[in-house]
Design goal:
mainly alpha
């Protein structure tokens, strides 16, 4: 990985203060950040009002969708593995 001199100084200093190798420090911090990004991508935040509308919609009868039903009955054009 290419970093500027300043970035390398900062990373090395932080790794040393943490008692870690530079690689261990960078991987640990990168992994934490990656987990945060993935968590945010997989979470849906709703207001109480929006959640109530969502639950109400789930309780409604299913909407008839003839086109979807027609395609669901057809054989898939994608071959099975």
């Amino acid at each position: 990985m290419r970093v500027s001199e300043r970035q390398e100084r900062v990373l090395r200093a932080a790794a040393e203060l943490s008692g870690e190798t530079l690689t261990g420090f960078v991987l640990g911090v990168a992994t934490e950040r990656a987990e945060q990004v993935l968590e945010r991508a997989n979470r849906v935040d709703l207001s109480a009002e929006a959640f109530d509308r969502f639950v109400a919609a789930l309780d409604e009868p299913a909407e008839e969708m003839p086109v979807v039903r027609r395609y669901a009955r057809q054989r898939s054009p994608i071959p099975a593995p």
